[in-house]
Amino acid sequence: MRTTVGIIGAGPAGLLLARLLSDAGIDSVVLESRDRPYVEQRQRAGILEQGTIDVLRAAGAGERMDREGLRHDGIELRYDRTRHRVDFPALTGGRSVMVYAQTEVCKDLIALQLKDGAPLLFEAEALAVEDADTDRPRVRFRHEGREDVLECDYVVGCDGFWGVARKAIPASVSRTFERTYPFGWLGILADVPPSHDELVYARHDRGFALLSMRSPSVSRLYLQVPEGTDAEEWSDDEIWAELERRFETDDDWRLERGPITQKSVTPMRSYVHEPMRHGRLFLAGDAAHIVPPTGAKGLNLAVGDVVTFARALTDQRETGSSELLDAYSATCLRRVWQAERFSYDMTTLLHRAPDATPFEDRLQLARLARIASSRAAETELAEAYTGFPVD
Ligand code: APR
Ligand code: PHB
Fold first, then answer.
1. PANTHER family per the record (predicted)?
2. How far does the centroid of ligand 2 lie from the alpha carbon of residue 101, in Å?
3. Is 170 among the catalytic positions?
């Protein structure tokens, strides 16, 4: 098999990249190790920045998003039994975000790709990227019980944190930056209307909690739990009781309970691999970087990477100059580190470390009080949450 751009992974990064390339008249092949139902059912985050919304619309994948997505003009910070709303449009000159689940974005992109896009192969596992530093990089893969080779002009590793693409970059040129956290998130989906019409980020002495949603009738909620927690250790009643405690306020706000349809634990990590390019191999999305979910940046960063790559390759084809392709890693990393900083700040602002001291507790409360009382501090949060520009 031969193509211009070999794409490994059909998460949001790989699927959107295939779409952007076909719009630019550049052919590609997507290899995805899992089957279609698995990719379409995997529960992930759900906040789209304005830039992401614009890109999905321009790629022809915005129709259902515009119908079913929920526009959000703010979030609530909850601490010390009080509530503070951050008004995004007022602080950022009109920017807002949209709640539309990543799984739905993937479903929409898969449907488009299978209808009139380049080949998208499910149950096709990339085994290795070879000859990345030559003009003819190759992906060795297994599909329908056979080993095959995809010969490419470029390979883009969109294969997530556990993928194989990153391993093709020699250790001598790689640098990694990592931080793990001694806690994770226990996430639930529940068949109950969300108890608030915007997301609630709660800081509590017992740990962080987040109220989010998937639709007007489905709630998505998270609890900070110790690292290594098994979701089955928590009964449904225990989960609701703990959420109630962490969201408790001095006013008459109440958390509605409902049947829990899904629960799982997500570990928390910050990770960056530099550079994001080696020869003709490019890394995009979780293959190159991970952020803890507190800032809702993972999906939006993946979109930024593939937009940068598609523009750079299009420019190279039109002008003959490889300047933008050569700048790919540096361009993406500037944005990535801003998202790493914000995600880290949000995480340390709102979570309680197991060894937190009373001094650190007071500092967290002081940081929150500062956001609630200073327009400058609040604007900084609103600008970062609603998104950094793609370039
Ligand atoms: N061969 C083929 N496909 C692979 C391989 C492989 N060897 N290894 C992994 N994959 C596939 C996975 O099955 C997955 O579908 O690559 C895809 C990677 O997708 P994601 O993990 O969703 O990563 P990405 O597209 O970068 O999206 C980032 O996902 O994890 C969230 O919070 C993160 O929202 C962010 C987004
Ligand atoms: C979600 O809805 O899954 C979600 C929302 C906001 C976050 C993380 C996850 O910061």
1. P-HYDROXYBENZOATE HYDROXYLASE, TRK SYSTEM POTASSIUM UPTAKE PROTEIN
2. 9
3. no
